[in-house]
C-alpha cells in the first residue's frame, strides 16, 4: 500500500485540507500521513482565521516522517507563506520522493485567500520540483500572469503554456466553468516541445456540496499514481471516484454552507471489498487520449497497458465478486477437450473450422448486442466504447475467421455472412442460437437502464473469458502453433485493455441500484455458461 504524505493546511470541519486528503488517500487505497503547514479556523461557510506555526516546526514534522518512513508519494496543498513554501522546496530537494503533486491553493471555494501575495514567487520555484500541478482556472491564470480562461480551449492553451514553462505535467480543471460537463485534462510535455493532452470529462453534479473537491482530487491523484505509475489511468480512476463522492455528497448532513463530498460512499457501498489491483481502472470514465484525435482503431478509444500475458483484473469490488462467483464454471471451460486441444495444438482442423463458422454467426449477433448497448448507454464514453466494440467484432474479428478458413472454408463463412442481419441463420447450431437469444433478448425488460445493465453483463464474458483463455493459452504456446493467429488476437494487450474498459463499465453498472445489479449479474453468469457450452459444442463437428 503506497505511503502518501499530505503537506497542507487544516479544516476542522473535515471537508478540505489535510482532513480531506487523509480521507481521499484512504478511499483510493493508500496509507495517509500528514504534516501541517497552517491551522485554519474554517467551516463550510468560509475561513475565519489562519495560524501559521514556525516554518522550522514544519521542517521538524517533515523530517520526523522522512527519517523513518519510506514515502511513495507527496501531495502538497495550502502553503500560506513564502517561508513555508521555501521550507517544503528545501525538504523536497533533500528527500526526493518519487511522486510530487502540487495543488497550488491560493483561494478557498468560499473566496478567502489562502496564499499570501508575497509567496507566489516562492511557489514558482517549487513548481520546478513537482511532477504534477493541479490548478483551478483562477490559479492557472495567476501562475501565468494572465487573465482567467473563459472557455475550455483557452484553459487548455494556458495548461500547455504552464506545462512548457515548468516542464511539469498539468491537470487543467474545468470545475469553475459553467455547463453540463466538468471537464479535466492532463497536459504532459512530450520532451520535444509538444504535449500529450488527455481529456477526462464527467457530468457536472447538481450539488452545492463541493467544498474540498480540489484537495480531494489532488490527494487521490498522488495515491493512484503511486499505485498505477500512469497519469492517464490515475486521472480516469480519480475522476470516477470523485464523481461518486459528489453524487452522494447530499446524503451527508455536514454544515449549512458548501458541504463536503462523501469520500467513502462508494467504498462502503461495495462492502469494503478489496481495492482494484494496479492494472484496474475503477469507474466508468473512459479517457479519450489526444482529445483532438479520437482513437480510430481497436475496440476502445484508448489502449492502456495491461500486462502482456496477464488477464485483466476486476475493476473493483463488484466485478471481483462476480469474477470469483464464476470461477468454478471458468475452470470447467479450461478443462474442456476443445480448449485443451487449442492450447496444445492437437485440436482437429474440422473442429476448429466448425467452431469458427459458428463463431462468425455469433459475432454478428454479438455486434448487434453491443450496438444496442451503445444506443442505450447513458454516458458518452460508453456509447463510443460499445459502438467501437461492435465495429471491431464485425471487422477485425471476422477478418480473422475469413483469413483462417481461407478460400475453401471461407466460402462457408461468406455464406453465413451473406444472410441478412437478424434473420434466422440456418447454419447456426443450437448453442449458437441459444447464446444469441440470451444476448439479444431485449423485450424482457421494460426500462432502458435495466436493459443496458443486462446487456453490459451479457456481453462482458465474451471479452473477459476470451482475454483470460487467450492469455493462458499463449503462455503454453509453442512457436509453430497451428492456431497461433487466433491465440494472438485474444492474448493481445490491446484486447486486454479493451477488456479492462468493459470491466470498468460493468463495475459502474453493478454499483447502480439493485435492479440494475441483478440484471447484470444474471446476464453475466448466463453468458459464462454459454461460453462454456459454445466451446464444448466445438468438439462435435
Ligand atoms: N459539480 C461538479 N460536478 C462534477 N465534478 C465537479 C463539480 N465541481 C467540481 N468538479 C470537479 O472537481 C475537481 C476540482 O475542481 P475545481 O476546478 O473546482 O477545483 P478547485 O477550485 O481547486 O476545488 P476546491 O473547491 O477544492 O477549491 C475537478 O475534477 C472538477 O472537474
Ligand atoms: C486548508 C485548506 N486547503 C485548501 C482549501 C481549498 O478548498 C481549503 N479550504 N482549506
UniProtKB/TrEMBL annotation:
Coiled-coil ranges (or none): none
Keyword rRNA-binding: no
Cited InterPro entries: Haem_Oase-like_multi-hlx, HMP/HMP-P_kinase_dom, PM/HMP-P_kinase-1, Ribokinase-like, Thiaminase-2/PQQC
Matching CDD domains: HMPP_kinase, TenA_C-like
Pfam families attached to this UniProt entry: Phos_pyr_kin (PF08543), TENA_THI-4 (PF03070)
Low complexity: bias regions: 299-315
Pathway noted in the entry: Cofactor biosynthesis; thiamine diphosphate biosynthesis; 4-amino-2-methyl-5-diphosphomethylpyrimidine from 5-amino-1-(5-phospho-D-ribosyl)imidazole: step 3/3
Protein name stated in the entry: Bifunctional hydroxymethylpyrimidine kinase/phosphomethylpyrimidine kinase
Amino acid at each position: 500500500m503506497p505511503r502518501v504524505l499530505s503537506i497542507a493546511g487544516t479544516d476542522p470541519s473535515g471537508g478540505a485540507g489535510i482532513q480531506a486528503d487523509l480521507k481521499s488517500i484512504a478511499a483510493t487505497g493508500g496509507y495517509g500521513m500528514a504534516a501541517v503547514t497552517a491551522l485554519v479556523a474554517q467551516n463550510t461557510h468560509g475561513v475565519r482565521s489562519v495560524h501559521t506555526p514556525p516554518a522550522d516546526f514544519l521542517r521538524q514534522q517533515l523530517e520526523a516522517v522522512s527519517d523513518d518512513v519510506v514515502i511513495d508519494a507527496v501531495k502538497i496543498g495550502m502553503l500560506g507563506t513564502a517561508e513555508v513554501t521555501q521550507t517544503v522546496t528545501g525538504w523536497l530537494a533533500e528527500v526526493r520522493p518519487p511522486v510530487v503533486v502540487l495543488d497550488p491553493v491560493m483561494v478557498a471555494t468560499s473566496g478567502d485567500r489562502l496564499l499570501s501575495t508575497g509567496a507566489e514567487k516562492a511557489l514558482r520555484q517549487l513548481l520546478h520540483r513537482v511532477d504534477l500541478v493541479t490548478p483551478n482556472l483562477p490559479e492557472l491564470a495567476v501562475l501565468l500572469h494572465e487573465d482567467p480562461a473563459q472557455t475550455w480551449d483557452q484553459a487548455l492553451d494556458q495548461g500547455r503554456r504552464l506545462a512548457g514553462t515548468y516542464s511539469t505535467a498539468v491537470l487543467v480543471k474545468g470545475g469553475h466553468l459553467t455547463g453540463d460537463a466538468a471537464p479535466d485534462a492532463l497536459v504532459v510535455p512530450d520532451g520535444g516541445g509538444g504535449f500529450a493532452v488527455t481529456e477526462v470529462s464527467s457530468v457536472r453534479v447538481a450539488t452545492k456540496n463541493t467544498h474540498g473537491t480540489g484537495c480531494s482530487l489532488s490527494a487521490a491523484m498522488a495515491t493512484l499514481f503511486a499505485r498505477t505509475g500512469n497519469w492517464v489511468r490515475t486521472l480516469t480512476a480519480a475522476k470516477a471516484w470523485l464523481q461518486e463522492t459528489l453524487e452522494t455528497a447530499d446524503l451527508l448532513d455536514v454544515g449549512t454552507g458548501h458541504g463536503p463530498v462523501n469520500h467513502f460512499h462508494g467504498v462502503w457501498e461495495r462492502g469494503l471489498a478489496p481495492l482494484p489491483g494496479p492494472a484496474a481502472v475503477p469507474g466508468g470514465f473512459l479517457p479519450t487520449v489526444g482529445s483532438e484525435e479520437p482513437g480510430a482503431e481497436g475496440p476502445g478509444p484508448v489502449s492502456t497497458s495491461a500486462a502482456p500475458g496477464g488477464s485483466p483484473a476486476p475493476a473493483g469490488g463488484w466485478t471481483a465478486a462476480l469474477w470469483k462467483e464464476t470461477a468454478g464454471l471458468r475452470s470447467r471451460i479450461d478443462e474442456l477437450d476443445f480448449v485443451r486441444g487449442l492450447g496444445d495444438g492437437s485440436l482437429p482442423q474440422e473442429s476448429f473450422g466448425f467452431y469458427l463458422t459458428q463463431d462468425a454467426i455469433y459475432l454478428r449477433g454479438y455486434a448487434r448486442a453491443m450496438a444496442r448497448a451503445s444506443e442505450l448507454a447513458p454516458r458518452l464514453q460508453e456509447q463510443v466504447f460499445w459502438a467501437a466494440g461492435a465495429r471491431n467484432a464485425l471487422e477485425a474479428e471476422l477478418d480473422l475467421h475469413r483469413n483462417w478458413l481461407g478460400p475453401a472454408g471461407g466460402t462457408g463463412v461468406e455464406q453465413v455472412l451473406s444472410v441478412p442481419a437478424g434473420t434466422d441463420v440456418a447454419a447456426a447450431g443450437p448453442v449458437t442460437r441459444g447464446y444469441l437469444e440470451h444476448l439479444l433478448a431485449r423485450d424482457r425488460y421494460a426500462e432502458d437502464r435495466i436493459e443496458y445493465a443486462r446487456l453490459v453483463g451479457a456481453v462482458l464474458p465474451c471479452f473477459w473469458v476470451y482475454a483470460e483463455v487467450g492469455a493462458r493459452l499463449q503462455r503454453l504456446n509453442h512457436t509453430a502453433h497451428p492456431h497461433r493467429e487466433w491465440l494472438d488476437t485474444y492474448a493481445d494487450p490491446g484486447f486486454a485493455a479493451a477488456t479492462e474498459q468493459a470491466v470498468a463499465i460493468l463495475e459502474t453498472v453493478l454499483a447502480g441500484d439493485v435492479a440494475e445489479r441483478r440484471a447484470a449479474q444474471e446476464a453475466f453468469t448466463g453468458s459464462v455458461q454459454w461460453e462454456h457450452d459454445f466451446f464444448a459444442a466445438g468438439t462435435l463437428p
